[in-house]
């Protein structure tokens, strides 16, 4: 092969490498989903969301009204509207449901019987609310690292999830701040449900 042909071959290889590195264009935009996050005060909503956003735990302050966080994942961005869980706030939750595409419900699996009963009533109300009843639910049994924590099976039975949520899209997962990988996996499952709902809407 002549020197000219060899030079041309190298120039062409350089051109292909340049195109591969520089001419791909911007990566496709990740889909965004608007979610509402509810649960009683002390259930750990703010701490869990802050952990997913890699925020310092020293800066976590319990939500009294509502706050919004953009929680980034590799395949989606979740715009989470967290609502305060105090008695005087919960009666206004439904005002913030409009536009939600999914629900995160956080419960304290190590709470008192009275608080667990209140959490069950609030979850039942959310599952049956006209603006939420068709949406995917991620139910997080938080504080699994505490000695008094109920197991997922105990929570499922106590909250009567099988009969109440039959036919709905829901996931019940254990979680704690000590296991961020499991927490991220729970949210990945929720994203899968959100994507499935998107695909169904497109087919319709």
Structural commentary:
By secondary structure, this protein is an alpha/beta fold. It has one domain: P-loop containing nucleotide triphosphate hydrolases (Rossmann fold, 3-Layer(aba) Sandwich). It contains 7 helices and 6 strands; from the N terminus they run H-E-H-E-E-H-E-H-E-H-H-E-H. The chain has helices at 3-22, 45-52, 87-90, 113-128, 152-158, 161-164, 180-203, and strands at residues 32-38, 66-72, 77-83, 102-108, 137-142, 170-174. It has a 6-stranded mixed beta sheet, with helices on both faces. The model has no long low-confidence stretch (mean pLDDT 86).
Termini separation:
60 Å
Number of domains: 1
Strand order of the largest sheet: 2-3-1-4-5-6
Helix content: 40-55%
Order of helices and strands: HEHEEHEHEHHEH
How much is the radius of gyration in Å?
A: 23 Å
- CATH class placement: Alpha Beta
Dominant shape: globular
Number of DSSP strand runs = 6
CATH topology: Rossmann fold
């Amino acid at each position: 092969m002549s020197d000219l042909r060899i030079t041309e071959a190298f120039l062409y290889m350089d051109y292909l490498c340049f195109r591969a590195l520089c001419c791909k264009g911007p990566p496709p935009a990740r889909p965004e989903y608007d979610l509402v996050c509810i649960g009683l005060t002390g259930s750990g909503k703010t701490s869990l969301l802050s952990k997913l956003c890699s925020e310092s735990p020293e800066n976590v302050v319990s939500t009294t009204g509502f706050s919004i966080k953009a929680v980034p994942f590799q395949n989606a961005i979740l715009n989470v509207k967290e609502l305060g869980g105090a008695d005087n706030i919960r009666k206004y939750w439904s005002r913030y449901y409009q536009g939600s595409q999914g629900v995160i419900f956080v419960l304290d699996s190590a709470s008192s019987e009275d608080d667990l009963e209140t959490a069950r009533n609030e979850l039942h109300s959310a599952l049956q609310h006209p603006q939420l009843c068709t949406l995917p639910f991620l139910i997080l049994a938080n504080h699994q690292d505490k000695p008094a924590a109920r197991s997922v099976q105990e929570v499922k039975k106590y909250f009567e999830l099988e009969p109440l949520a039959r036919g709905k899209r829901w996931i019940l997962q254990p979680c704690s701040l000590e296991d961020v990988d499991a927490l991220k996996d729970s949210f990945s499952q929720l994203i899968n449900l959100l994507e499935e709902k998107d695909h169904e809407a497109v087919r319709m």
